[in-house]
Amino acid sequence: MRPDSVTGVSFVPVTGPATFRPAEPPREGVVEFTDDRRTVALPIRAAIPVLTKARTREDLHPSVSLLSGAALLGMRLVAAGKFAPGGSPPSWRVAGLDPDDEERIALLGRSGPDDLVLVRELLDAVADALPRAAPTAVTPPPHRPRGVTFEQRLQARLARHQRVDVGDLPQLVTISLRVEAAEEELVAGAVRLVPQAHDAQNPLHLTDLALLWTGTPEEHGFGERARTHATIALRAAADAWPVIDRLLELRVPDEITLDADELVSLLDEGVGALRERGVDVLWPRSLGRDLTATTVLDRSAPGTREGQLIEGLLGAEALFSFNWQIAVHGDPLTTEEMDQLAASASPLMRLRGNWTVVDPAVARKARKRLVRTVKPAEAIAAALTGTVQVADVTEQVIVGASLLQVREQLLTAATREPVPPPVGLTASLRDYQQHGLTWLAELTSLGLGACLADDMGLGKTVTLIALHLHRREAGSSGPTLVVCPASLLGNWEDEVRRFAPGVPVVRFHGSARDVSAAGDGFVLTTYGTMMRDAEALAEVPWDLVVADEAQHVKNSRTSTARALRSIPSAARVALTGTPVENDLTELWSILDWATPGLLGSRNAFRKVWAAPIESGLEPTKARQFADLIGPFLLRRRKSDPGIAPELPPKTETDHRVQLTREQVVLYESFVRDTMDRIERADEDARRGLVLALLTGLKQICNHPAHFLKQSAVKLSGRSEKVDLLDELLGTVLAEDGAALVFTQYVAMARLLEAHLTRAGIPHQFLHGGTPVREREAMVRRFQAGEVPVFLLSLKAGGTGLNLTRADHVVHVDRWWNPAVEEQATDRAYRIGQLRPVQVHRIITRGTIEEKIAELLTRKRVLADAVLANGEAALTELDNDELRDFVALRPVD
């Protein structure tokens, strides 16, 4: 869904329960809004405007009301400055509360101790989320002394050290430290540290610091206050690395000798700390510092022979490992040299005829050798990005030969020569669909998952059906499980039978929950059924598991997402037009289901990728992330070069949905009662009863509230038409599109208008009673992109309007005359339309609507002769023909 400028999302259910999930730090907390169809999880920063805006509603769930009150109180406390740093890691918490504040908190949490705890946790989350940045922890000077004697010396120096307030005095002198060492000193593992003075205005003018004390500063080209400022610079350096305090103890600060422990301290932390204070440490050329440590990624078990199948490299039992490779001047050390380095206790060692300074971090890596063993997904991630996280540090990776071929295959999968369409496919794939098939075939053949994120209308369903057939031709076995919203079950079933005739397709839904008839074909189920029967589904040897409209599992913490993860298969494919709706964690959830381990744990992903990218502070992270996910996520838009020109100007799709149980009861009862009256009526009364029957049945197909003349009621869950409309509009808005929604009934349009208002979807409604001036203003607003959804009654909005801003047209109910529908569609599909138009017709299966659709599609001659005359033609059918025409047929 397209983010709303106020709430952050275009549809957040606030009439159902809401749950706050606290976290550390508190700003990472999440609020989950739930209704009977979905769960929307928002980070606390995005949830705050939703909760505050929800206060104006009268149908709030009590849990939402509680969280809303706490959010408002938290905002008032932050505005009053009643917050302070606290906790670990550092974060803002509410603080400095007066008795009135405590009383307000107690009133909010009066229902019980759990509510009181919840309120206080949410207050901390609001306080931590609203300030511009997290507080910074105050840390002591970074030094980790080695040995008791050295530690005691440092503590003594720190105790004697007196800080000098530098203030805003201009610093005339800066300092650097020069390392010197004679052969005998190196053998003993010691070096000397000589301070140097630099003219602040001309850093190239320097002298040994001691000379400023042995003569006058003017003799060496420095000002009369040079000694004072040199002392200030030394004390600032001592704040960073306390060993410098030894120079301040000398009458003339000429040099100090560092023993092995102090040299380790300098290498470990002193160099970096001094650099932050502007003090460079200069090393002699004779003392090499060219030892580097790089991670090498390769198979844990060596010996892969040439030509071994890549599937073997990435199988469930395959393991890879990161190992440290130490090199001098870029040349890797031998095993003997690595052993010598690991055994050395001194930070100085002779290596290949020269003395070398050994960074303690490099020495630790030489001793450890093995970084860790990992599964294939993490190995592939490192191979694609060229980096790996080791102890919270990003290290460069050298990829072993066993993964180079895999990386090349992944990088070229979407652009290589397409695989031929499978023999059993009765459809002509467009070029971009053939490349999508090739890409899916390549990744799934490696046992890897994928996310096909094409725009709605680009044919993701037929591409997936082609993949199923291709894998059968390639020798794979086992059925394909498709998990989708209930409103899409009929569409999947129709398209499988249309594009892959002969392939078994069964529904695992309702009372029909037997997969045995599917063989190696398709099994279709809903997210709700999958969640309830995950254990039974997990016992089936699936070849593919497909998550259609995968944004339904964008929150990995929901029971639906957890259930989907529990179902094993040879490969997984996610289909969605909106892989990211609110934040990158949603993309993590989808890709981590498709290829587990690729992006690491959720917390690691937030820290390593999402937080730096979303903050915009590390642009290189965004490029690295694109390199990582690029091979696993294929995103094509209608506006992409080479995509739109291949699309027909108008694509028409029939979406078949089923009646709910409530609709079935109403439909069958209304047919039975009205047919009894028709059979007893005279000719004049009969015509009116037939028209009433046809109208009532179409109203039942729309929604029970339409037929029962109910108003101000919740529509969700009582009609798959409305549920499907929500899905379609959610995708359209997420793709920054615009939609015309037609219905022939003003009463149904009124119900939809109220439903869209409750959902927070911007819209406007045009009907026969709309004044001409307002009608023109509506058109202008829509064409200007101010309102993305235009709800119209078919007769009032079906002619005379130019609405080329729309790229989607939805017919909620079918009209008897196809020309009337085409005229309505032509409000968007007309001269001036620059984008492909997607036409969606929603049809209830087994009902009068489906029979009309069949007449329109399979019997055009009959449609022209009979249906062009509308409902009146059907009044001429005899009773048996009429009963057969309106009777509810069983759905396979």
Question: Can you characterise this structure?
Answer:
By secondary structure, the chain is an alpha/beta fold. Helices cover 42% and strands 18% of the residues. Strands 21-22-20-23-24-19-25 form a 7-stranded parallel β-sheet. Strands 11, 12, 13, 16, 17 and 18 form a 6-stranded mixed β-sheet that branches. Strand 28, helix 30 and strand 29 form a beta-alpha-beta unit. The chain is elongated.
Secondary structure elements and their pairing?
Blueprint: E1 18-21, E2 30-34, E3 39-43, H1 44-54, H2 62-79, E4 83-86, E5 91-94, H3 99-108, H4 113-129, H5 148-160, E6 173-180, H6 183-187, E7 191-199, E8 206-208, H7 211-214, H8 226-240, H9 245-249, E9 256-258, H10 260-276, E10 281-282, E11 291-299, H11 310-313, E12 320-328, E13 331-332, H12 335-343, E14 348-351, E15 354-357, H13 360-368, E16 370-374, H14 376-385, E17 387-390, E18 393-399, H15 401-412, H16 431-445, E19 450-452, H17 460-473, E20 480-484, H18 489-499, E21 505-507, E22 522-526, H19 527-532, H20 534-538, E23 542-548, H21 559-565, E24 569-575, H22 584-594, H23 602-615, H24 619-629, E25 633-634, E26 650-657, H25 661-680, H26 683-702, H27 704-707, H28 720-734, E27 739-743, H29 746-759, E28 763-766, H30 772-783, E29 789-793, H31 794-797, E30 808-811, H32 818-825, E31 837-844, H33 848-858, H34 860-865, H35 871-874, H36 879-886
Helix pairs in contact: 1-2, 2-3, 2-4, 12-13, 14-15, 14-24, 16-17, 17-18, 22-23, 25-26
